[in-house]
């Protein structure tokens, strides 16, 4: 029988049956979840969950020697131990000028525990400039998805970058060079290039109000303003924070990073509430801007 001769009702039955079979083949995904968002991971978010020191996933860690990779200096991988939730999005993070991954390593388990594979990189040289750090972030993502021991846990179509200081400037460079990325999160970013009008990657910039090294007036805010209004973007400014706020556990940073990554890497609209209209200014936050409403 030709497909064209099958009744509309019969075609619907065939499609429904095929969909059901496909769902059975994906462990840990229910029909309701797949129909809504196949990338959704973890429970419905609450502020208490986001502010906790760990998310809902248990996390394991594996080290990567600089001798085993090319294009960056090795690092540390953090990943959810769950094998029942399918694959996860991934994020590469760079430390800042003269710094090592250990300076911001709290971000690894914090983000991974919310359902991401994270690689915190060591740079080829601690003096590497933002453009080089951007290329190293992309090299780390390529390693993570193609060669690493956790590559089978990663959805290579859902990748993001972040970094501190020159690493934050590097995350802007990486987002510019690879527009297929799903998100970028520069932290206290530093870069001599002030215009990012070409960016289309959803970008959350977090700056410190009292940063005297990469002042928000000459770095974070011009970066944010230069990104087109048609792109998804947000700017969070931490009240009285110095340039080094990412080097210690910072709850407002974690809340917004997780929310941004869940929304744009996992396409999880349950996190819209934390982005748009976003946090109010007060004791911890001196400024918040975004391209609301979310697309």
UniProtKB/TrEMBL annotation:
InterPro entries from the UniProt entry: AB_hydrolase_fold, FrsA_esterase, PET_hydrolase/cutinase-like
Keyword match Disulfide bond: no
Coiled coil: none
The protein's name: Alpha/beta hydrolase
Taxonomy, superkingdom: Bacteria
Stored Gene3D superfamilies: alpha/beta hydrolase
Molecular function GO terms recorded: carboxylic ester hydrolase activity
Family, similarity comment: Belongs to the AB hydrolase superfamily.
Domain PET hydrolase/cutinase-like: 33-293
Keywords tagged on the record: Hydrolase, Signal
Signal peptide positions (record): 1-34
Annotated source species: Actinoplanes aureus
UniProt keyword Transmembrane helix present: no
């Amino acid at each position: 029988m030709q497909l064209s001769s099958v009744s509309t009702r019969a075609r619907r039955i065939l499609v429904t049956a095929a969909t059901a079979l496909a769902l059975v083949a994906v462990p840990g995904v229910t029909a309701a979840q797949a129909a809504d968002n196949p990338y959704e991971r973890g429970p419905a978010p609450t502020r208490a969950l986001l502010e906790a020191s760990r998310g809902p996933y248990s996390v394991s860690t594996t080290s990567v020697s600089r001798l085993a990779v090319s294009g960056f200096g090795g690092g540390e991988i953090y990943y959810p131990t769950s094998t029942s939730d399918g694959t996860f999005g991934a994020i590469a993070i760079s430390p800042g000028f003269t710094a090592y991954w250990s300076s911001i390593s709290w971000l690894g388990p914090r983000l991974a525990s919310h359902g991401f594979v994270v690689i915190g990189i060591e740079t080829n040289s601690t003096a590497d400039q933002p453009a080089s750090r951007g290329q190293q972030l992309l090299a780390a993502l390529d390693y993570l998805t193609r060669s690493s021991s956790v590559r089978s846990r990663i959805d290579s179509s859902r990748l993001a970058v972040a970094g501190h200081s020159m690493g934050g400037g590097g995350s802007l460079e990486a987002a510019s060079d690879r527009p297929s990325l799903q998100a970028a999160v520069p932290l206290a970013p530093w870069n001599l290039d002030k215009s990012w009008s070409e960016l289309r990657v959803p970008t959350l910039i977090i700056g410190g109000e009292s940063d005297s090294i990469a002042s928000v007036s000459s770095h974070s805010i011009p970066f944010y303003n230069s990104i087109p209004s048609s792109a998804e973007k947000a700017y969070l400014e931490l009240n009285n924070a110095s340039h080094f706020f990412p080097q210690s556990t910072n709850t407002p940073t974690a809340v917004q990073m997780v929310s941004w990554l869940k929304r744009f890497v996992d396409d999880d609209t349950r996190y819209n509430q934390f982005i748009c209209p976003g946090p109010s200014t007060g004791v911890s936050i001196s400024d918040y801007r975004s391209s609301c409403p979310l697309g």
